[in-house]
């Protein structure tokens, strides 16, 4: 391996490491159930404002 190949290898490794750190730090966590997507709340009837379950 000559100097030119070694420099290219080091440069590509640095670039991939930098990309991986960007992906780790810039990724945002999702707030589950933020817009009512997780549970269904009954809006009418005697069970108003209760969370509906699949059990019967």
What's the short story on this structure?
By secondary structure, the protein is an all-alpha fold.
Structure description:
The chain is mostly helical. It has one domain. 43% of the residues lie in helices and 0% in strands. The chain has 1 helix and no strands. The protein has one helix spanning 3-26. The radius of gyration is 26 Å and the shape is rod-shaped. The protein starts with a helix and ends in a 30-residue tail after the last helix.
C-alpha-based Rg, rounded: 26 Å
Level of helix content? 40-55%
Q: Note the run of SSEs as H and E.
A: H
What is the count of distinct domains? 1
> Looking at the chains present, what oligomeric state does this protein adopt?
single chain
> Span from first to last CA?
70 Å
Low-pLDDT regions: none
- Overall morphology: rod-shaped
Largest sheet: none
Structural class: mainly alpha
Q: How many strands?
A: 0
Q: How many helical elements? A: 1
Mean pLDDT figure: 81
User: How much strand?
Assistant: under 5%
């Amino acid at each position: 391996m000559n100097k030119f190949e070694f420099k290219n290898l080091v440069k590509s490794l640095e670039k991939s490491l930098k990309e991986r750190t960007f992906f780790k730090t810039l990724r945002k966590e999702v707030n589950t159930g933020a817009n009512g997507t997780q549970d269904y709340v009954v809006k009418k009837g005697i069970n108003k404002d209760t969370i509906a379950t699949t059990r019967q």
